[in-house]
Amino acid sequence: MQARFLAMMAAATLAMLALFAVLLHRQAQMQREVERIGRDTLDASLAQALRRQGEGEARQLAESLAEPLYHVDLAAIGTIARATLHEPGVRHLLVYDAAGNLIHDGRPDPGRGGDGQGSLAARALAARGLLVQQEGSLLDVAMPVAIGRERIGSVRVGYDLGAMHAARDHALAGLHRRLDDLARRHLLVMALLGAALLALGAAMLWMLQRFVVQPIRRLAESARAIEGGRFELPALPASARNDELGDLVRAFGRMSRSLARHDRDIRRMAYTDALTGLANRLAFRERLDAELATARDAGRPVALLFADIDDFKRINDTYGHDAGDEALLECAQRIHAEVERRCGERALLARFGGDEFVILVPAGAGADMRAHASSLAQALVGTVARPILLREREVFLSASVGLTLFPDDAGDATALIKNGDIAMYQAKVAGKNCFRFYSRAMDRAVERRVHLEHELRGAWERGELSLVYQPVFRVADRALVGAEALLRWRHPQRGAIAPSVFIDVAEQSGLIETLGPQVLGAACADAALWQARAGAPAPFVAVNLSPRQLRSGDLPAVVADCLQRSGLRPERLHLELTETAVMGDEASAGRLLSQLRASGVKVWLDDFGTGFSGLSHLRRVPVDGVKIDRSFVADILRDPDDLALTTAIIAMAHSLGMTVVAEGVEKEGQYALLRERGCNLAQGYWLGHPLPAQEFARLLG
């Protein structure tokens, strides 16, 4: 704006100077025109005045000379002539007689004869009356001298026009001086007017700069500051003005304060977890970068702990998301209290999302960072494991914690976070409810796991995955009554891969949700082809279900579809679910299992005894039987405690009307002892190895 105003002022100044130049030029033209008109007017006026003077002078002389000329009184004529010659502007006076002879010219020794001035004289002598003639700078006036009607001579008066011209020039010189003086005054007035206009323009420029440009410039600087993210602006000096610009500045100030307030809110939202009030991933990453830079300069270690609540989804599925938020908030408060107690305010606790928490233990938090981090991780595992009262019920949770150290494990934030996540995952693989430090070997394990997951995708379609069936016998008479479907993977390069390896990969990656229905459908199709022995019911098929399948909610529909497509009767299908999966979400699992049992499908609780279940849990979960875990069966011949536990499980299940199946029977003595204790069914390598579907069908006869 200031530049434009300066440009406008410059243009106005140039226009004013151009106008002044035009006015001066016009004034000079007018002065010359006035002088020309004055000269012409003076010439005309002077000529007319001189003519009238000459005419009057000639008539008077004609009258005065009539008598002297009649008497030829040269003395009188000379007196009159000399008096006339002394008059201003008279150049000559000539007196002629009737014959045209010059008789007197006003000099003391008058000349006689001659005509005096040639052609002028001839015309003057021939004139009958007054005659005015001009030749060069001479004005000649002639008048006949007569007495009565008789002409007795003539008189000529010559006037010098040079004198008239001198008078004219003198008058014009005065006019010129007056015009010049007027022009100078005019020029002075114009200069003063121009100076006044320039002063006015300078004053307007200063006012524009002071009261408009500077406030607008401050507003522009404030706008740039706001654009750069600096919303806290100082008060603008023009805020006390009561004009429109003052209103604009005050409105801008209010907007700035509002933006600052909203920026603080947005930053709080951007850097704070909404549920727990802890720092979020973004705030944690910025703090981590700063702490690593400080630790790198000081040569001090930093520890990073990743804590993940194990199987937290079952809380949401069982009690709802509101209750899950309450449990998560309680865990966050416990972890925060433990971190603050052991590490002080310098440590940072953040929620990365879901049920995952990350703790930054900065340099200086402990003398031995590894020991300090290990102690903190153990405390976190312990504090999360304490029961939580949720909806008037005690809920038990656990946490898996991964630890990584800077600079031992990584030199930057990204690698450190990745290593902590890997260590936390290894803690889950190790059985959960524990902590693990990161090691280089974990990277290789993760790479192998990722590669295995990649190869597992599509393995069913490529025919690499297949089902085998381990026979299940009735303990009382060793009759073959069914089989458990087991999934096997024969890799084209790596050969047979252990189920404990690839099943866990499928479970963790979510591939089990695709493989589960495929396995169930294939097992139902194979079992539908099995023929019963004479006098015995057709054998059943037992299929393992993963916790993910149980949580999906559509399990009854999937089972019904498989039964319909295969034609297998529902009572011949037994579904096995791990004890930990069922006990972790009793309400939801109970509803699903009730629907399955209502359709005729049998439900067994697999690996019973490994989840510290009690009679109260079995009463709340609708199952048809339990399978004693192989870890109890393996030592019942030499460990009295395992025998006592196995006996108690059998008795407890029978008291609830449930069938008991023993897994891992590999010795005849184990089989005999189980039969003695009243176990219903058994399976194991002593009884029969897993077989392909065709070979198992041949066992049926």
TrEMBL record:
Protein name: Diguanylate cyclase/phosphodiesterase
Domain HAMP: 210-264
PROSITE patterns linked: EAL (PS50883), GGDEF (PS50887), HAMP (PS50885)
Xref: InterPro entries: Biofilm_reg_signaling, EAL_dom, EAL_sf, GGDEF_dom, HAMP_dom, Nucleotide_cyclase, Rev_trsase/Diguanyl_cyclase
Gene Ontology biological-process annotations: signal transduction
Gene Ontology CC annotation, any one: membrane
Source organism (scientific name): Vulcaniibacterium tengchongense
Domain EAL, chain residue ranges per copy: 449-701
Signal peptide residue numbers: none
Keywords of this entry: Membrane, Transmembrane, Transmembrane helix
GGDEF domain boundaries: 300-440
